[in-house]
Every structure is written in C-alpha cells, then in structure tokens.
Write a structure and sequence with these properties.
Strand order of the largest sheet: 2-4-5-7-6
Order of helices and strands: HHHEHEEHEHHEHEE
Number of helices: 8
Radius of gyration: 33 Å
Helix content: 25-40%
Shape: globular
Number of domains: 1
Structural class: alpha+beta
Oligomer: single chain
CATH topology: Muramoyl-pentapeptide Carboxypeptidase, domain 2
CATH class: Alpha Beta
C-alpha cells in the first residue's frame, strides 16, 4: 500500500494524476454545460432560457393564442323588434366604419362595441329584398352604418365642436373648414339611424373582391379624388368615398357623371323599389318610412348581446 502510494504519488506521477482528474472533471462540466446551453453570461441572465419541446418535430413548444377579451354586458338592452341584419340575410356585406379607426373622427365612435349592422325588423326585411334584387343584377349590398345609438350622435357633435382636431381633414373634408360642419348640415342632431330605420350603404360587384384593412396613420387621400387614388374600397365607384363632407356627395350632383352617376342611380332604383327613400345630400343614405319605430331614438350599444334573443 505504501509502495503503491509512493509510485502513484511521486512528483511526476502525482502531477499527471491531478491533470487527469482535472481533465475528467472539466469534461464532465463541459458536457453538462453544453447540454444546458451556453454559459450564463450577462446576456443569458437577462433572458429566460427556452426549453425545447421533445414532442413532434418542432424544437420550441408553440405559444397558446391569447383568449379574446369577452364582450362587456350592455348597459341598455334593445327593445323587441330590433334585429341583427346577419340573422336576416348573412350575405349582405358589412364594413362598419364607426366601429373602426377609419372614419371622420379617426377613432372608434362611442357606442360601437362590435362591427355589427342592426336594424328594426321591417327595415331589415326590406333590405333583404333589395339584396335579392341586387344579386340578380350581379351585385351585393355593402353597409357602412345601420342603427346608430344616440350616444354616437352626441359623440359626433362633441367632436365637431373641437375645431383643433383636424386629424382626418385630408381625407374626409379636405375643402371644408371644420367650423362649417353644423352650418352646412354635415353634422346634425337626432337621426332616423337611431330608430334602426336608416342605412348607409353601397354596391359591390360580385364576386366581391377582397378589401385590405385600413392601417391607422397611413397617408390620407381626399375622398373626392379619383377612385384609383382613394382608399381601396371594394365597392363600385360612386364618385366619392363614404362620409365625404363635400357637395359632390349629393346624389344628383352635376359634377358626377358617367359610370359613377349611373352607379348612384342603380343603387337608388334598387332601394326605392323596396320602399327606401334617399337623402339627397348623401348618395349612401336611405331610410324606410312607415314603421312603428319612426320618431324613436334608442341608445343601446351596438353589440350582439344587447339584442333580444342574444
């Protein structure tokens, strides 16, 4: 035992043993660190490491999609006889601008919780008849606004009074001073939209072309510019964009000629045949009169769970 210790523990043999042991220990440590990833320097400590998945061919476990926020409970419920147009005719296209940032306020308007077309039942039924007739001509209706809660009307009024807020002027009222919105009738008080009897709409050639989403902050183009220059709405050319504060939006404005003029008359013919009346100052604005809801102004929010049966 003593001899063996002396042989292994001599000056040269001892140093060799220590080198061998250090090498073995270093190899074990290096292998362990390699299995765990690079050494934890400052950058590694700043970020948590990701553990690869051993299931399937991927190396990183997929991140679950976030759960969408639930729609809040409505503060006011709609009365009986108010319906979602999608329940009456799901083929009618919907591009509900006031539930987005792409409108003259540049933000979601008060009361528009969901992008949903709501009307009273007689108006929705009449609109379905128009859709059938439009389909027979190779078109579909597309709605921009339907029922409008009184709180949204109040929001329009409050916005119009803030003369320094001209964020959307270049697109929606490029030739008009904002101080004239009330005087010229572009912003007004109670509207038949709030009874669910009025709809703002256009026509889309079938099959409907896709329409890209509006990007907040994208360059604005005048609503009176040629159709190829305006925001790429997939509707047929009506001579101006929707919600354009300009006299060219008058249905029979003499400056609108050719195909845009004919398109306005086609929409008017289809809507009139079902009993709708056009507001001459806006080619997109139609009201169905003679319903039990005429003269009523509701304030329930635009959301599905505010409606009867939902």
């Amino acid at each position: 035992m003593v001899t063996g210790r002396r042989v292994l523990g001599g000056p040269v043999a001892g140093r060799g043993w220590r080198r061998l042991a250090a090498g073995l220990l270093g190899g074990l440590l290096a292998g362990g660190l390699a299995a765990c990833g690079p050494a934890a320097g400052p950058a590694a400590l700043a970020s948590p490491s990701v553990v690869p998945s051993t299931v399937g061919p991927t190396t990183v476990a997929p991140t679950p999609s976030p759960t969408p926020s639930p729609v809040p409970r409505p503060d006011i419920l709609a009365p009986a006889g108010i319906v979602a147009v999608s329940d009456v005719d799901p083929s009618i296209l919907q591009d509900m601008r006031y539930a987005t940032n792409h409108n003259f306020e540049g933000r979601v308007v008060a009361g528009y919780v969901e992008p949903l077309c709501i009307l009273n039942a007689p108006t929705a039924t009449a609109l379905h008849k128009v859709q059938v007739a439009a389909n027979a001509r190779g078109y579909s209706l597309k709605v921009y606004d339907c029922y409008r809660p009184q709180r949204a009307v109040d929001d329009f009024t409050a916005w119009a009074k803030v003369l320094t807020d001209t964020v959307t002027k270049a697109e929606f009222y490029p030739s008009l001073d904002k101080s004239r919105l009330f005087r010229d009738g572009y912003i007004a008080g109670p509207t038949p939209h709030s009874s669910g009897s009025t709809v703002d709409l256009t026509l889309v050639k079938l099959p409907a072309a896709p329409q890209r989403a509006y990007v907040l902050g994208e360059p604005q183009v005048s609503c009176t510019a040629p159709v190829a220059q305006r925001f790429p709405d997939n509707s047929i050319d009506m001579g101006t964009g929707f919600d354009c504060f300009d006299p060219r939006t008058h249905t029979l404005d003499s400056r609108i000629t050719g195909e845009p003029h004919d398109n306005r008359l086609l929409l008017k013919s289809l809507m009139s045949a079902a009993g709708f009346v056009n507001y001459s100052g806006e080619w997109w604005h139609y009201t169905l009169g003679g319903t039990a809801f005429a003269g009523k102004y509701f304030n329930f929010p635009v959301q599905l769970n505010a409606l009867p049966g939902h």
